[in-house]
Write a structure and sequence with these properties.
This protein is mainly α and 202 residues long. It is 62% helix and 0% strand.
Length: 202
């Protein structure tokens, strides 16, 4: 659900229906954020291109850690839940993701991962506060300048997406309610999970 009137899933046609179908093929239903983009499917397409380019430069696990850190700094439940779930499904046990989300510096991560998450959170929370010393700290952990750019780009991109969803009232999908209770609570940092059922194309 959102504050704007979006194209109902059952009535979608053309580009919007194609957008819904692609999202449903991936998630098993049409996510609330996808319905929001029914108002501007061309923006969704452009976002997908940008995101794909940024993701393609990063190791998948590192991308998810960066994105989770940025989403939590932005208090985006939707993105925290989505990317926490990816970490749970593909990289860590639920209890490990819960620890990473709430206290990454004591969650058993490598020091470079802790540093990357802290930097991503700083970028999302207060980019003007980033100093040359902060960037040098990532170099000291072995990152090249190109890799630092990639981390900053992923965190900055999350600012656009998370902020847009929250600004227009998009609620995290009901499917996230199936996550383990402790993990679900740790990842719900802003808007609560929707009380409405997820919907599918007919």
């Amino acid at each position: 659900m959102a504050y704007l009137e979006t194209v109902p899933v059952a009535q979608a046609q053309g580009d919007v229906r194609e957008q819904y179908a692609r999202a449903q093929a991936n998630a098993g239903y049409v996510p609330n954020y996808t319905q929001l983009f029914s108002l501007r499917p061309e923006v969704n397409a452009a976002w997908g291109t940008l995101l794909g380019t940024i993701r393609g430069t990063l190791d998948p696990r590192r991308y998810e850690l960066v994105t989770l850190a940025a989403a939590r700094a932005l208090r985006s439940s939707y993105c925290s839940l989505a990317h926490g779930k990816v970490l749970r499904d593909a990289h860590y046990a639920p209890s490990e993701v819960q620890a990473i989300a709430t206290a990454p510096d004591s969650a058993g991560l490598a020091p470079v991962d802790v540093a990357i998450m802290a930097f991503a959170a700083q970028v999302a929370r207060d980019a003007p506060s980033v100093t040359a010393a902060d960037v040098q700290g990532l170099r000291d952990h072995g990152l090249s300048d190109t890799e630092i750019f990639d981390v900053a780009a992923a965190a900055s991109a999350r600012c656009f997406f998370s902020t847009l969803l929250d600004a227009l009232g998009a609620e995290p999908d009901a499917a996230y309610g199936a996550l383990e209770p402790g993990l679900r609570e740790a990842l719900t940092v802003g808007r609560p999970i929707t009380q409405h059922q997820d919907v599918r194309l007919p």
